[in-house]
Amino acid sequence: MKNILYEEDAKNIRNIIGSRDKVIIRANTAKKILIEGNKRYVSGKLANKDISLKVLSQLYTNGQYPFAAILTCSDSRVSPELIFDVGLGDIFVVRNAGNVVDSIVSGSIEYAVQLLNVPLVIVLGHDKCGAVKAAVDGGEVSPNIKAVTSNIDPVVKYVKANYKNIKGEEIASKVEDENILYSVNKLLENSVIKELKSNGNVDVIPVKYSMATGEVTFLEIFNDNLKQMNDTKYG
């Protein structure tokens, strides 16, 4: 294991991708790395990453030092490691249908920010989300699937009550956006995550992935609304 590398000492933040050193970086730098990675993914000019068993062995021996934690959907077409063109050990990923937050998800992200010192948390939603569609359609589903869609139901109710001028796929798209924000808000109900964010040690950002283009959109335009996002808003 080499010495700890601080971002201000790194000549090129791309050197952090797939780095086997412990790299101490801030949220803004982590975000830049992911943005650059997505640009490479979209262009098809991927980074030359070593994902061999040798690297895995080093990670096994030395431990993991991811620079971002990502909550995303289980959809087989949405793979954060590919979307952001990162290597082994770079991101800590939590996945479930609909990128929803329950106590297990909250605890997993808490583990990342508190014990792994991850500076950036992303909630990564996407278009054409099946879990969102199931919640919007509101049909009969099994108890297990209902356990998933029930987390999205408050968002569906909010969108249908406040966006009466939209129909069909527009409703689902709006619910996808609001559901990302809702999950960000639910994560910030975790006292550990909330305190780390308040102290400037962690940032929590809503992001949406377009399967049509491969591009991600950082929804920071909505960040000013986060303080309004609570159970009252969604009923």
UniProtKB/TrEMBL annotation:
CDD domains: beta_CA_cladeC. It comes from the Bacteria. Transmembrane segments: none annotated. It catalyses: hydrogencarbonate + H(+) = CO2 + H2O. Binds 1 zinc ion per subunit. Its EC number is 4.2.1.1. InterPro entries: Carbonic_anhydrase (IPR001765), Carbonic_anhydrase_CS (IPR015892), Carbonic_anhydrase_sf (IPR036874). One of its GO terms (molecular function) is carbonate dehydratase activity. Keywords: Lyase, Metal-binding, Zinc. One of its GO terms (biological process) is carbon utilization. Zn(2+) binds at C73, D75, H126, C129. Belongs to the beta-class carbonic anhydrase family. This is Carbonic anhydrase. It comes from Clostridium polyendosporum. The lineage of its organism: Bacteria, Bacillati, Bacillota, Clostridia, Eubacteriales.
